[in-house]
Structure formats: structure tokens, C-alpha cells
């Protein structure tokens, strides 16, 4: 059973491009996914507290481009020693 009072540290992980002026490469997106998987499977095991779903519609010339990102809020009882800020 998970209780929010047990959360002592929250890590915010952005997967995707959240800034149209600074697009993330596939490598950066994959690193974010790997970090998310590590947070959910390593000790101490994190729990997803919330998810933000964001998108931007941009007009580039005659084309419309959609940028999407998801921001995961992962809670831990304490800050993991392997997690860097």
C-alpha cells in the first residue's frame, strides 16, 4: 500500500520536447525513458504521483507540426543515491 505521507523526494522527468526553440533528439528522449524505467524499478522504488500531458501546435511554413511531451512526477521515500539532479 502506497501513502503520500511516505513521499520525501519527487523527481520530475520530461519525455519529449517541451520547448519549440530547443527540440530534443531521440537520444535525449531515450535517456529520459531509461531514467523513468530506472526510477520505477530500482531500489528505492519510485511511484508515479502524476502525469502532465502537453502539446504545442506550430505553423512551419504551410505545415503544422505538433510537439508533444509527457512529464512524470515520481515520488520516493528518500532521494536515491544513484539519482543526480
Give a quick summary of the entry:
The chain is an alpha+beta fold.
Q: What's the layout of helices and strands?
A:
Layout lengths: L8 E8 L9 H16 L5 E14 L2 E14 L9
Antiparallel strand pairs: 1-3, 2-3
Task: Determine the mean pLDDT.
Answer: 90
Order of helices and strands: EHEE
Structural class: alpha+beta
**Fraction of helical residues:** 10-25%
CATH-level-2 architecture: 2-Layer Sandwich
Uncertain runs are none
CATH class: Alpha Beta
Gyration radius from CA atoms, angstroms: 15 Å
The CATH topology corresponds to Translation Initiation Factor IF3
Q: How many distinct beta strands?
A: 3
User: Strand-residue fraction?
Assistant: 35-45%
Biggest β-sheet description: 3 strands, antiparallel
Shape: elongated
| Number of helical elements | 1
For the record, give the distance between the C-alpha atoms at the N and C termini, rounded to a whole number.
Answer: 28 Å
Number of domains: 1
Adjacency order of strands in the biggest sheet:
1-3-2
Structure description:
With 85 residues, the chain is α+β, with helices and mostly antiparallel strands. The chain has a single domain, classed as Translation Initiation Factor IF3, CATH 3.30.110. The protein is 19% helix and 42% strand. The protein has one helix and three strands, in the order βαββ. It has one helix at 26-41; strands at residues 9-16, 47-60, 63-76. The chain has a three-stranded antiparallel beta sheet. Strand 2 and strand 3 (63-76) form a beta hairpin. The chain starts with 8 loop residues before the first strand and ends in a 9-residue tail after the last strand.
